[in-house]
Structures are given as C-alpha cells and as structure tokens.
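Lecture 7 notes: from sequence to structure.

We start with a single chain of 238 residues. Read the sequence below before looking at the structure.
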Amino acid sequence: MSILDALLPVRDLRVLVTAGAGGVGAAIARAFHAAGARVHVCDIDRSALDRLRAEQPAITASMADVSLVADVQTVFDDVEAFLGGLDVLVGNAGIAGPRGPIETIDSVGWERAIAVNVHSQFHFARRAVPLLRRSRSAPSLIIAGAVAERSAELSAADASRTWAVVGLMRALAVELGPHGIRVNAILLASAGPDRPGADSARAAMADNAAAVALFLCSPAARTVTGQTVRLDGSIASR
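Now the structure, written as tokens:
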C-alpha cells in the first residue's frame, strides 16, 4: 500500500454518525460515503434527515434524540439491520450550553446540554463497543464536539462538556486499546453566529473535520489513539 493510499480509510467500512444530517455531521457522513463506506446517520431533525436522504439515498438514517436511551437502542437496531455491524462510531451530537454567570444559568438548560453533549457519548459508546470488538476493519471511535474559540467565551457548560468528553475519550482509549479499538477526539472552534464570514467559516470547519475523521480511520492512523485534534480556524485567519 502506498503512502497516499494509506491516508484513506479502507472501503466498505460500516460507519455510524450521530447528529449526521446537517452541519459537521453531514459533512463527515458524506465524506465517508464518498470514500466507499456504508454510512448510517441519526438526527433529531426530520427535515434535515429527509434532505440528506434525498441527496444521498445510499445513506440510511434513524430519527433519534441522542440523550434518550430508548432512542439510542432504536438507532443500534437500525444499524444492525442496515449495516450488519459497525466499524466506526462518530459521536458528533452537541448543542450550545447556557451562557452567563453561573448564578443565572437555568438548571433545565444545563441538564439538557449535559444530556446531549456528554451523556449521549456514553450511551452510544456503551452500545457500540460490543459491535466494534467484532469488527475486523481496524475499529475506531471518534468523539467530536465544539469548543469556544477564545477562553473569554468559555461558559461553565462549554468547559464541563469539553473536559468531560476529552476525559471519556482518554479513558476509553486505554480501556479499548487491548481490543484493537482506537479512540480519538476532534474539537472544533466556534465560528460565532454574528461574525463576518461565519457561514463560510463553519462550512470550511465542517470539511476540515470530515477530512480529519477520514484520516483517523485510515491505515496511516493505525497507531493514533487517545489524541485530541483541535481545529482552530481562527488562528489561520488572523
């Protein structure tokens, strides 16, 4: 295998992408599909799922709230039905947490953010690992998420989410390494909704995240595990 060939995943990987119908998740799903993978996505947004399926009929899908255990079970029932197993899990689901001084943060908003951003990673990893252990295609688990671009923008919810998922990734990398399962994280800087060029910056960041996800599942990354790849486009644009 040439170096260039080693930079792409092998074909026919069975891939699940959470929150995969729009934004970063959809970019990752499309990239794996283009690389010859069989891809299943889940998302809470029915209209986004319909648009993705119309664009890429070969990508199968489930509608799900990633924070609900029953919905996670439904997703994995669909994964086994459509894909027959799993080689790659990309846990991409995430929402913006509440902002402001801690005494003003609403507990309902906090709990919802932690449920989607942290608990979902646990629920999906717990269900995925038995399938990944049976994979013969260098199985990989990728945790993806957004982080504030600058420390001044980092809220308590953002910080809690970021360090929780990084800690989970590192612990799983140690736990699952003996089973041949590699675990890494991709963290994306926030473009900020009100900044000039934010839409194009988000699109470029999504494409960059997709490229990194492909690399992390490629033969070239076969010794890469327990690592956090932080994509900070703001540095390059300054």
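The mean pLDDT is 90. Keep this in mind for problem set 3.
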